[in-house]
Design brief:
Elements (H helix, E strand, L loop, with lengths): L4 E6 L4 E8 L2 E9 L1 H5 L6 H23 L8 E7 L3 H18 L3 E5 H8 L3 E2 L14 E6 L4 E8 L2 E7 L5 H11 L6 H9 L25 H14 L5 H30 L3 E5 L6 H14 L2 E3 L11 H12 L27
Parallel strand pairs: 1-4, 3-6, 4-5, 7-10, 10-11
Antiparallel strand pairs: 1-2, 2-3, 7-8, 8-9
Helix pairs in contact: 2-3, 4-10, 5-6, 5-7, 6-8, 8-9
The protein binds 5'-O-[(R)-(carboxyoxy)(hydroxy)phosphoryl]adenosine (KG4) and zinc ion.
């Protein structure tokens, strides 16, 4: 037995997701993406996101149960993302989960979205026919890189988080999305810039690497980099060829990857921690993953990044975090935490109020 069987729901932004997990082992993970809905607006439109979650949430939950071969009577508990995120979007998942809890009597655990991403590095499944053994929640430094967050967090155990540094302005994923918009590449920006960067010269343009001078500063800033790309296009005009475009993307990505990797290494060194986990949507980035692997070998770090399917938003990570909360004896409560940081005392395993 590898933990309680959890049905989990995630709806914090533009993905409606449901999953069935046993502890950290994934039995099903269904994600209905709204990317096409928001693409034409160049970013997520909150009202549209809520409406599409309303339409998708029931089929997605049914799909997750069906794929896992589960029915509600075989589930031990429910999990749901309780924030941070878009309030209207979150409420769709939260109210669905509350409804299920009311009719089944199952305990319902609210999960902080970023705690879900932290849990994603531990997920195991049999999707490829290969079982990845779920590991215990070992102490590590987590680099959380998504559309809304860029943070270095010291993780001493489940529920024990200390933020070492966060972004002062844009998150890394947000910088990708804004630069893509500026270059006319659509939304979301990460995957398309990542693809173009692979064709370009990362040394073509010397874009700035912010906040690298102080050794023990683990904060980030990406808005200057975004402005530097804008200034470059104002001075030189918009790229006239695919080569020029690829060079801008490669040089931008090199700056992001450089800063993220260097700060993560420094944090591991300063804390004397040899495990580095990189999670969140941006952890799917090929350039970042390749560079991290090099650094891990050079510095003797144990690197963990989730499989690509669990980098972006999904409910399997929320289920795993809910399972861990349940096993740790946390009370089953759902408290919306839209802007609360992950090291807030109220996120800890005890002392929450409903
Ligand atoms: O974790 P996530 O799915 O949602 C949030 O919690 O924000 O992250 C979404 C972000 C978006 O900004 C998207 O552009 C970025 O992750 N992203 C990437 C890549 N794939 C997604 N950024 C860089 N390279 C990628 N391959
Ligand atoms: Zn996320």
């Amino acid at each position: 037995m590898s933990g309680p069987r959890i049905l989990a729901i995630e709806s914090s932004c533009d993905e409606t997701a449901a999953a069935v997990v046993r502890g950290f082992e994934v039995e099903s993970s269904v994600v209905a993406s709204q990317v096409e809905v928001h693409a034409r607006f160049g970013g997520v439109v909150p009202e549209l996101a809520s409406r599409h979650h309303l339409g998708a949430v029931v089929p997605v939950v049914r799909g997750a149960l069906r794929i896992a071969g589960a029915d509600l009577s075989s589930i031990d508990a429910l999990g749901v993302t309780a924030g941070p995120g878009l309030v209207g979007a979150l409420l769709v998942g939260v109210q669905m989960a509350r409804g299920l809890a009311a009719v089944t009597g199952l305990p319902l655990f609210g999960v902080h979205h970023m705690e879900g991403h932290i849990a994603s590095a531990f997920l195991g499944d049999t999707v490829d026919g290969v079982r990845r053994a779920p590991e215990p929640f070992a102490p590590h430094v987590a680099l959380l890189v998504s559309g809304g967050h860029t943070e270095l967090v010291r993780v001493d155990g489940f529920g024990q988080y200390e933020i070492l540094g966060a972004t002062r302005d844009d998150a890394a994923g947000e910088a990708y999305d804004k630069v893509a918009k500026l270059l006319g590449l659509g939304y979301p920006g990460g995957p398309v810039i990542d693809r173009l960067a692979a064709e370009g010269n990362p040394d073509a343009i010397a874009f700035p690497r912010a906040m690298l001078t102080k050794k023990h500063n683990f904060e980030f800033s990406f808005s200057g980099l975004k402005t530097a790309v804008l200034v470059h296009t104002e001075r030189n005009g918009m790229p006239r060829s695919r080569v020029e475009l690829a060079d801008i993307c490669a040089s931008f990505q090199a700056a992001v990857v450089d800063v993220l990797t260097r700060k993560a290494r420094r944090a591991c060194r300063a804390l004397g921690v040899s495990r580095l986990h990189v999670v969140g949507g941006v952890s799917a980035n090929r350039g970042l993953r390749a560079r991290l692997e090099q650094v891990a070998i050079r510095d003797g770090l144990t690197l963990r990044v989730p499989p690509l399917r669990y980098c972006g938003d999904n409910a399997a990570m929320i289920g795993a975090a809910a399972a861990a909360r349940m096993l740790a004896g946390a009370p089953p409560v759902v408290e919306l935490h839209t802007s609360r940081a992950i090291d807030d005392p109220r996120i800890r395993l005890t002392g929450e109020s409903s």
